[in-house]
Each structure stands twice: as C-alpha cells, then as structure tokens.
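Consortium newsletter contribution from the modelling node. Members have asked for a concrete example of what our holo predictions look like. Here is one, prepared for the iron/sulfur cluster complex that several groups have been discussing at recent meetings.
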Amino acid sequence: MRVALFLTCVNDTLYPDTGRAVVKLLTRLGVEVDFPMAQTCCGQAHYNTGYRHEAEPLARHFSDVFAEYEAIVTPSGSCGAMVRELYPRMGERARAEGRGDTLAATLAPVVPKTYELTEFLVDVLRVTDVGAYYPHKVTYHPTCHGLRGLGLGDRPRRLLRAVAGLELVELPGADECCGFGGTFALKNSDVSAAMGADKVRNAESTGAEVLCAADNSCLMHIGGTMTRLESGMRPVHIAEILASTKEGPAS
Amino acid sequence: MSGTFVGMPAFPEAAREAVGDRTLRANLRHATHTIRAKRAAAVAEVSDWAQLREAGKRIKDHTLRRLDHYLVQLEEAVTAAGGTVHWAADADEANRIVAALVKETGESDLVKVKSMATQEIGLNEALEAEGIRAYETDLAELIVQLGRDRPSHILVPAIHRNRGEIRDIFAREMSAWGRPAPEGLTDTPAELAEAARLHLREKFLRAKVGISGANFMVAETGTLVVVESEGNGRMCLTLPETLISVVGIEKIVPTWRDLEVFLQTLPRSSTAERMNPYTSTWTGTTDGDGPRTFHLVLLDNGRTDTLADEVGRQALRCIRCSACLNVCPVYERAGGHAYGSVYPGPIGAILSPQLRGTGSEIDASLPYASSLCGACYEVCPVAIDIPEVLVHLRERVVQGGPVTREGNKVVVKPAKGHAAERAAMRAARWAFGRPGALRAGQRLASRTRGLHPRTLPGPGRAWSASRDLPAVPAEPFRDWWQRTNGGTADGTSGEGAAK
Ligand code: SF4
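And here is the predicted structure:
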C-alpha cells in the first residue's frame, strides 16, 4: 500500500521528529510512504479564526496535492478533523452562497481518504500491536478534535497498551480541553493558561514521566506549560512512542 | 439586553479577574464538576437518548421554520382560553407593556418567578423606574437580587456564591426587602432554605400580581409550561390575581405531545434529575381557580433577525438547560459575568452576538470565548452545533457581511482591531499557497534558531507569559526528506537522521 504523509505545517516546521517517526513506523509495517513536497497547510487556523475565504485556496491546494493518493495519513487529530469534518462544510457554505458545487467537488475526493495516524493503523492496517518498545510510564491526553471531531475513541489507548514495556496510566479529567485552541491561546491567554496549568497538574498527579497525545499543537501548549511550571514531565507525540523499538528507541 | 451589562469590556479582560479569583474558581469548579458527573449518569440511564436528542432538534427546527404559523395559532388559543396576547418587538416595548399592565392593577409590588426573558430585557430595572418593586422568588435569583449582584448561570444564577457568602447576604439584606433573616443564621443548607422560605412566604401571600417566564408554550392549546425545582414558581403562578408571562417567541412547540421529548431531556440535562420536582402548566384563566387575569407578552428582541441567519438560527433551538455551561472549560475559569449577558457560557457566546449584533466590544469578543473543544455540542440535548456557530460569527466579526437587523438586510463592517490579524492571515495564506515560500521561511527559522527567544515581545507576549515556546529544529522535515530521499539514503527509515 502506498500512502501520502500529510505532516501538517506545524510538524514540518517545528516537529520533524514526529514526521520521521511516522515514516519509520509505517515503513516497518510494510507501507510505502510518500511525502508530496508541494504540501503546505490544511487551512485550519484560518478557518477557525473566521477567515474562511482565506482557508478556501489552502483547501483547494490540499486537494490538488493529495487527490491522487490511495490514502492520506496525518499525525494530527485537528488537521485530520479539518479535512474530514470541515472541508465538506466549506463546500456546503460555498453552495449556500450561490457559488455552485465547484468547491465541494474539488474537495470531495480527499475527504474520505484522510486518516489520522491511529485511525489508519487500527481501521485500515488493522493492527494494534505495532511492535513497539517504550519502557516508560505514560499518560494519554485525548485531544478535543481527535476525541470529538474524528471520534478516535479508544484507538490510541489500544495501541499504547500493546507497546512492550509501556505502563499506561489514566489521566484524570482526560476529556477536558488543554486550553490550546489555536488562536484562542493568544486571544484568551489567561483562560488558556489556567486550562493548561490544570491539565499539567492532572498529568503530574498520575506519576507518569510522559504525557502523550496525537497532536503536536496541543503538546506544544502543554509542553510549554510544563517547562514553565518546572514539571518533570515530557510531552511526546504518540507516533514517536509507536515508532520506538529496542534497537531504535525514541529520541 | 439588561442595562446592567451595558459597556462591558471584551471577554478576555472580563475573564482575567475571574481567572485570578481563587474563591470564585473553586466555587465554579466544584459546582460544575458535581453537576457534570450527575448529568452524565442521568443521561446514561436512558437507552434512547440519541433519538430523544434528534427528536428535540427536529421538533424545534420544524417549529422555527413555521414560527409565524404557530405563533398565530398560539395567540388564538390563548385568547380563546381567556388570556390576552401582546407582541413586543424589543426590550423597550416589552417593558412598557408590562409596566402599563402592572399600573392598571394599582399595585406597586409584585412577585416574580425566575425568567430569563425578563432579565434579558432588564424588566426589574424598568419597573423600578416606574416605582414598581419586583421580588425575585427563585432561591438563586433571590440571592442575586439581595446581593445586588448579577446572575452568572442560566439555571443556578448564584453558582458563583458559596454557602458562607449566602449566609452573609441573607443576614445583611433581607430586612430591607421584607422579613429579616432569623437571628444567629448559620450556613447550613437547611437553615438557609428555611430563612428564604419564611421571607418569601410573606411575599407570596400578599402579592396581587405575578410575573413569570415559561419554558415552553404549546401552540395547539395555548398552554404555558414552567419546570422548576422549588415550587416557588407555582406559588407565583397560582396565588396572584393577575399573571403576566413574558416569553421569547422561540419557546413554542406545536403540540402537547411534543412536551414528551423535552420533559425528558430538559431535567436530565439541567439538574440531572429524571424528572423535575414541579411541572406547572396554565392555560388562560379558569373560574374559581388561579389568576383572574392573564397576559402573555411575546418577546422578539432580535429573535426574528437571528432566524434569518441559516447557520446561526440553530441557537434558537436552545431550551436553556445549561448543560453546555457546566461542561465548558472556559466558563469554568471565566465565570458567568465575563460573558456580559444573562446568557453566559457557550450558548451565551453564540446567542448574545446574534440578538444584540456584534457592534460592541463584548459582543465582538464572545465568538472567540471558546477553544472550540466541542464539549458543548456533545452535551446539548437539542444538538446545537455551537462550535460551528462560533466560527460562523467569528467570520462576521473579522470580515463583516450581510446580516438581518430589525427585519432589514444590512451589511456590517468588520469589527475594529482585527487589521493586523487579517494581514497576518493573508500573508500566511500567501506563503502556504507557495511551497517554496514556506520552505524559505522554515530554512530562515532553522538557520537563525540560536537567536530565537523562548519568550516573545509584542502580541506573542500573551503566549509566552505562561508558556515556553518550542525550540526551532535544525532542519525542517521536508529538507530531511529530500536530503535522505525519504529516509532511505542513510540506510534507515528515518531513525537517527539529521538530529
Ligand atoms: S445550548 Fe443546548 S446545552 Fe446549552 S443551554 Fe441551550 S439546550 Fe442546553
């Protein structure tokens, strides 16, 4: 099987380790991975801040770049939800505005083929034991768009439980938002910071060394709060845990 | 809406104080988490919750689509049952109507059962200006009124107060309004409830005029419905000679049978009860029983305009259960007052900017008072996609566009203060439209990585005041991909490369 990796602009720029981990993991599972160099951004930040018209060309660009692939895999619950949930809605809005079906038709091909990483592993490859080894105590934060937008359910936890050496501990208040929310973190920084601090305190109470999630944007917010609060915990993307082996441990 | 909220600062400033208030945050956290857990259990008991939710949504959507028809039907039914219907286009008109009706009775005191609609229009203040005193009789409303405070929650308006604070308010204020609090009042719930009961009982027995809201109005029979927990509402509805009900036009359902759905979903969503303790229904007047005179004031106040917006109109499905407030992490930290309206929390964030427009600072900031986590949509018993409406209203704030105001199509300008953001969004779109430009930017960031501060000046300061920024990596992913030919050039599948 040949899939396209949609890494997202944030991961490409700030978290290349996550991208390398996805490549390593999928290759190990026998998947041929391509990284279309023309990819940029799904338009989520624009859309969610109220700039739908600025997001439209980005969505069209995304479709141009990815339409030909059998499947598109992304290590981001929120960017995955952008394509799957909000691209169809953008098409509908364009139609309602009397602009016809062009946008909807352009975006339609990529919508059902886009998978968040854990979804792709469990639903498409049908694996839960990916042969990983990660000897650490880990707690899992289900990010909002993965949880409620994509309905990832317990897929990430099932994958984590199958990792050799990993001790998974439940995070109190797991389903509560960490307070990132894209531009929310800037526009309502006091509330956002209070939410982040509560998330970190809940994570600390588990005694885990690592807080893992399927979205680096949330991890950036949580991790930035952890260093500021001088918490001993580390934020790690789930892809890096799943890619980790005895021979090639995660960085 | 209520005059007490005029001139509110934008949400972020209003929230800042609450975030720093430890008592308030503890009160809110305790209350919302308790009810949250109970609600989840009460909902889980019902095997057909998803169907009930869908049914509620459909009944409301159907009614809103034919609102004109059902309102006329309601008016006919109420009139036939001996009541009088008044139509109020806005707050001023509603207040004038009610004040005139009260004056006709010759009374200057009246009792009220908690009604969001009358708070929305600032009825108490308007009556006071006419020399009429309205006594709130819902326990939480009483606490708010005695404390010269504002409500901060739809269902539990005094949620921001703890028992000690309530005891102090009762001991200090009750005497100015009627029967004083008993000597040596403590903060045990039973004593507080008894103090309120004695204080209110006197008011009920004297009042000649009552004012109420309604949770539902049944078009086919002209029946109004109030659901409540204390029974104080029932006293307001039955003891006075004149009853005036002020209700938003969206509260209508077509048939008596439709109540079946909402009388299941409302109590479970709001108080986590299988059934609310008191459900009162009244239809016009009845000889020898209840009020001799009944008036229904139907309030528009921006609702018809909201109905004209095809994305935003779903907010009118709201049955005011407050489940969305109780799960909202932003409400939990910011408190209800920061929303600058009697409708706080997620529903307030989408309702107020529609009913009032996005012209004021507070209204323009409300669509951003959310991280779009989606918890509100998940719990809403009538499936209002609050995040969808928030994003829709954000668009209105930053780009302006066509809206309906007082029945006319007008085009609103973008709200002030978004020019820099708009420029940044355009620039980002330009770069993201060109992979080469994105790459050049990434490389520049990587090359200068040693110079990057972990905290930021200017607009980024808000971020770095409480969080550290991530370090920029030595090489963006796409450069690594190209250099190593997808991780194959160095004989591995990516591991260890370009660290
Ligand atoms: S929006 Fe939904 S959850 Fe919120 S108060 Fe209204 S009905 Fe309840």
